[in-house]
TrEMBL record:
It comes from Paraburkholderia metrosideri. This is OB-fold domain-containing protein. Pfam families: OB_ChsH2_C, zf-ChsH2. Residues 25-49 form the ChsH2 rubredoxin-like zinc ribbon domain. Signal peptide: none annotated. Coiled coil: none annotated. Residues 53-112 form the ChsH2 C-terminal OB-fold domain.
């Protein structure tokens, strides 16, 4: 086993820099307004190479979730969860839900972005919107 680590290319360096600044930003096509995630040199919708980086609202909805009971990486002790979140801006990202997990099905639960230290860098994670954040090591993205 090994530890997980981010893979950083020239296209997503601004993304990781914005996460470290606690203000996650994504690429948006200047021509058609489509968000590019993962970041890319051209828009998948209109093929334009013009883009701008916009700060996210930090809110979304859980589309899917799973709890892993087997350890695949040393830095993720089981059980741990993975969630697919559709951001208010439209893109879908995969992350983790932190804090108290909701009873029953998580699909449709409203979440908000927080930043949590993961090894050498901050990582984007989510918490339920109705849930207070108690852990001092985690900070809300948009208090």
């Amino acid at each position: 086993m090994g530890t997980s680590r981010r893979i950083e290319s020239i296209y997503d360096q601004p993304l990781w820099a914005s996460i470290q600044a606690r203000a996650m930003r994504l690429q948006r096509c200047v021509c058609c307004g489509h968000f590019r995630y993962p970041p890319a040199p051209i828009c998948a919708r209109c093929l334009s190479d013009s883009a701008e980086w916009l700060t996210l609202q930090g809110r979304g909805t859980i589309l899917s979730w799973v709890i892993f009971h087997r350890q695949y990486f040393d830095d993720f002790a089981p059980p741990y969860n993975a969630i697919a979140v559709q951001l208010a801006e439209g893109p879908i990202i995969v992350s983790n839900l932190v804090g108290v997990t909701p009873p029953g099905d998580w699909i449709g639960s409203d979440v908000e972005l927080i930043y949590e230290r993961g090894g050498e860098c901050l990582l984007p994670r989510f918490k339920l919107r109705a849930q207070p954040l108690i852990d001092a090591d985690r900070q809300l993205a948009y208090p």
